[in-house]
Design goal:
This protein is mainly β. It has a single domain, classed as Thrombin, subunit H. It contains one helix and eight strands; from the N terminus they run αββββββββ. It has a four-stranded antiparallel beta sheet, with no helix packed on it. Strand 5 and strand 6 form a beta hairpin. It is globular, with a radius of gyration of 14 Å.
Length: 126
């Protein structure tokens, strides 16, 4: 794999990576905690394909993202967010699908939250 520019990732470095295979292309997803985004690269050439997400508390925004996994059936991403105490399902193009948990507030959350999730996994069945 070609070298990916350190300036793309940010000073804190990546917190998670995941690889998806699509036909003859392997796509590398990198969680960039500092900028609250996920970067998408061609895993063979290192060419940056896209990036999505911003820092925040809303749907498809991220706060201290720490875990990534790809659903092998749909190629959607599951993102564990330590800062928001939740897991989001995002399409491989970056569109919000669903979430589990909610950003914590002083009064709590009606949906509940996870206590700083830092990892996530999927089996072969998704």
């Amino acid at each position: 794999m070609s070298q990916i520019a350190a300036a793309d990732i940010g000073g804190m470095g990546p917190t998670a990576i995941a690889i998806a295979r699509a036909l003859s292309l392997e796509i590398l997803y990198i969680a960039d905690e500092q900028h609250g985004r996920i970067l998408k690269y061609n895993a063979h050439t290192g060419a940056r394909l896209a990036g999505f997400g911003t820092t925040g508390f809303g749907d498809d925004q991220f706060n201290r993202l720490y875990g990534l996994v790809i659903d092998p059936a749909t190629r959607d991403l599951f993102v564990a967010e330590r800062g928001n105490g939740r897991v989001q399902r995002i399409t491989n193009a970056g569109a919000f699908v669903l979430k589990w948990g909610e950003h914590r507030t002083a009064t709590g959350s009606p949906q509940g939250f996870f206590n700083e999730p830092i990892g996530i996994a999927a089996d072969a069945d998704g």
